[in-house]
Amino acid sequence: MVLGYIVRGPMGGMTWHHLQYVLGLRQLGHDVFFLEDSGDTEYSCYDPKRNVTDADPTFGLAYIRDVFKRVDMADRWAYYDHHTGNWKGPISGNVKAIIASADLLLNLSCSNPIRLWLEDVPVRVLIDTDPVFTQIRNLTDNDRNSLCRKHNVFFTFGENYGKENCTIPVDGFPWKPTRQPVVMQEWPLTKGPGNGNFSTVMKWESYPGKTYNGQYFGMKSESFTPFIDLPSQTKQTLELSMSDHPEVQKELHKKGWKISNSLQLSSNPWAYQKFIQSSKGEFSIAKHGYVQANTGWFSERSTAYLASGRPVICQDTGFGETIKCGEGLVAFKTVDEAVAGLEKVNKSYEKHCKKARDLVEEYFNSKKVLDNLLNEAIKTHGSLSHRMK
What we know:
alpha/beta; 2 domains; 15 helices; globular; 18 strands
């Protein structure tokens, strides 16, 4: 069972993050279901049509119904609405029996509570996609710590966790490295537009930054400051697709950044995919906290660009310690390195496009990523090895 955040966050990029797990596990031959829980807060469901966040899942339920039908999993999901105490979706009538038969659950991004009916699933995997911030929450927020303790296998996108040069706080959980899986056939290689924009999809601020042990870990807004004038130093058009902080968007536009509306391109997974395919590549700034802690985090969005054969030029979070950089993927720390990276890719664009796809095959192919994840989980709970194989 994959636990995620699609009904409550019905946006194309977020949906792909989850679908790669659901479809990747199906591809490996597993019997897969997707479950989602409203959580306890009344401000749980985002409705882009009304542009409000409240407890009403109507938009999200219609959205997930359409998405899962398109990927031939129409009868494979359910949503628990804690506010009404009711299950929604095609398996709502027998969801408890399905849960009782489950061998393993994956709770993506710590996004779902573990209710009583999930506590007996033998292997309960937590996947941290927000390193530094997850660990600080575990150390400072009792409720979040309690949620984590309801799992028994732990993975993080912070692949440098535990290394001497990584300052992700140690929170007492045995985190193992993992990364975003990509189902290759869902992201076909397409020819990149040589005259297109380097783009990205982003939020200026996702939530307030965190301070722990005297060290501050911030959002993209803090990382962006040194690069604010970058468009004046390159002939390459740089596009930011975003929906928050309209006053910031105006300032960025004045500085030469092209601004587009992320709500439009994220209306469904395939509109999001089309936007990426229409881009020349990705140019991206990372969260300040990921950079400061040298986490090794790498974006699920960037893997989608790479899979499409689009070169990625992104701020260094230490991912070069586990992923080969230089061709197809270029890391930068300074403005000069960012400018040089753009020039390097543009000079040999087709070569970098090919290398981008090769990198996904090597590092992010769902068959490898999910097989490794399951094998690690089975190692922890060896009694399941026969059943799960």
